[in-house]
Every structure is written in structure tokens, then in C-alpha cells.
């Protein structure tokens, strides 16, 4: 659940200058990076294969899932440049849009689907208030489901990784991607301790869904908050996931990518960092990875793994059929 300090922060956030917000987050990340160095960026316990695991399609070594959360109008205006980059390099990805924060172009959504990409829903307003109460979530879930239907989307990603896996059953989705294996820098910092998808089973007639935790650090954390000047952390984590045969799921934001090679602003990084990651994957792991769209990996998981047993253990996190309770992993 969202802690009281985080609830308070999102209430006063509109009144805090953006520069001060970034400065506070950098200070907090500096402290946490030292405190959690034993579980970030790699949490060794997350590499355990799930029970019944038989491998990825065509005996691929690992799965690669690319997602883009488009947080603002600025990010929306950069989408076509990002699409062009990925298409030229032979990748396909998911673009998640915020329905009621800015105008989402129907032409852009149509073109994405036509070109083999996927469109998803990224919250409703991106204001940090979606999970403040079950009543508020229920009210917004009705509208989120309308956008899911209108956009013909089957996936959801919560802004800021706020989540309640039980409440999310109200959404008409096949998969959710609002968790991570390990990321102590997020507001809800507890990870799922797995680099594989898992099933969140329903109660009382509710449909279940597949949870896709992201497993590479987000670009905003690395390049804006931590001010990293290379992609060494991405490479390190990717190589470890490939070794373990897991799912490398990375969420990036066109909002923070600088495409014009000018000097980067306070909340920007060169798009060449992302391009370098894709080039690294292509060059080192050519023919060894599966690059499905999120809906494809969710359907694969449901077909191959759903029903292989309930209460499956993922590190310290267990999903149970009887209660649908889940634990968010904490580390001492």
C-alpha cells in the first residue's frame, strides 16, 4: 500500500518546484544506493526459475520486453522518433499512454498497431492518487476500462509503480506491469524478487492476470536521478538475466530522451544510451533472445505456466489461489 509519507508527498507535489523535487530524489537515491547495494541492481534471489519452467519459445536463452511509458505531452511528441529508431533496429515494443493527462493521438495509436507495436494504458491522470483509496480506484477503474476497450488494449502499467495487485483485478486486462524484481528507489520499494512473469489469481469469479515485473532499472532513475553517464548498469543486469534465462523487461520514457544532440536539460539524457542498449543486445545476443510484445509474453505464460500449480514460490513472494494474497518482498 502507499505509505502515509508518499500520500502526503503527492498531495503537496504540485506546489514543490520541479528542481527541488529532483534534488530531493537524488539525495534520497544516494543514501539508498549504498544501503541496498546487496540487492540492486542485481538481487540474486530473483534468478530462481519457477516450478514447471520449460523455457522460452524456440529455445531462446532469454526474453526481451521493451516498454515505453509516455508520461507527458512532451513524450507524446517524441514517440514517432522512437518508433523509427526501434523499427530500423528490428525491435518491437509497447507504448503506454496516460488517457486524461494529455491528448493521445488516435492516428499515432493506429500507426503503432499497424506497424506491429502495442498500445497500453498508463494509469488515468498520472497524479499519484489512483491508489489512495479503494473507492477512488474503483471510480477511476471504470474509466480506465473504457479506454482499454476503446484502444483495444489488454495491458496496464501504473504510474510511479503504485500498485495493489488485488484491486487491479477490477481492470479488464490480460497483464499488468506495475511491479519489479528489485528497485528500492520507487515509492513502493518492495520488489517481487523474480525475473520471470507470474500469475495473479482471482477470487470469487474474478479473472486472473499475468504480472510482468520490470527487471532493468528505469531510465529516469539511472540517467536523471543518478546521473549515470554510460549504460554499464543496464549491461550488467542484462548479462545476469541472460545467464539466468529470465525476462529482461526495460521501461523507458521518450519524455526524457534527447533526440536532437543538443545539450541535455536537467531531465534529459541522450537517446544514444537507449540505442546503445539495443545495439549491445543485437551484437552480443543475436539469435539468442525472444522479443515479444507484452501481450504475447503474457499469453505464452498463461498457456504454458498457468495451472502448473498454485501458491508457487517466487523468492519470498507467494501467490495463493485460496486468498489471492501476495507479499511484497522486504530486505533487511
Explain this structure.
The protein has helices at residues 4-12, 18-35, 73-89, 106-114, 134-151, 219-225, 232-244, 272-284, 294-304, and strands at 62-70, 94-97, 118-121, 155-156, 175-176, 198-200, 209-211, 247-252, 257-258, 269-270, 289-290, 313-314, 317-318. The protein has 332 residues and is α/β, with parallel strands linked by helices. It has one domain: TIM Barrel. The strands form 4 sheets. Strands 1, 2, 3, 8 and 11 form a 5-stranded parallel β-sheet that branches. The protein has a 4-stranded mixed β-sheet with strand order 4-5-7-6, covered by helices on one side. It is globular, with a radius of gyration of 19 Å. It starts with a helix and ends in a 14-residue tail after the last strand.
Q: Could you give a short description of this structure?
A:
The protein is of the alpha/beta class.
Search tags:
four-stranded mixed beta sheet; 35% helix; globular; 332 residues; alpha/beta
Strand-pairing-aware structural class:
alpha/beta
Q: How many strand units?
A: 13
Kindly report the name of the CATH homologous superfamily: Glycoside hydrolase/deacetylase
Work out the strand percent. 5-15%
Q: Low-confidence runs (pLDDT<50, min 5 residues)?
A: 309-332
The helix content is 25-40%
Sheet having the most strands: 5 strands, parallel
CATH architecture: Alpha-Beta Barrel
CATH topology: TIM Barrel
Mean pLDDT: 90
Give the CATH class: Alpha Beta
Please give the radius of gyration in angstroms.
Answer: 19 Å
* Number of separate domains: 1
- Compressed to H and E, one letter per element, the order equals HHEHEHEHEEEEHHEEEHEHEE
Shape: globular
Distance between the termini: 19 Å
DSSP helix count?
9
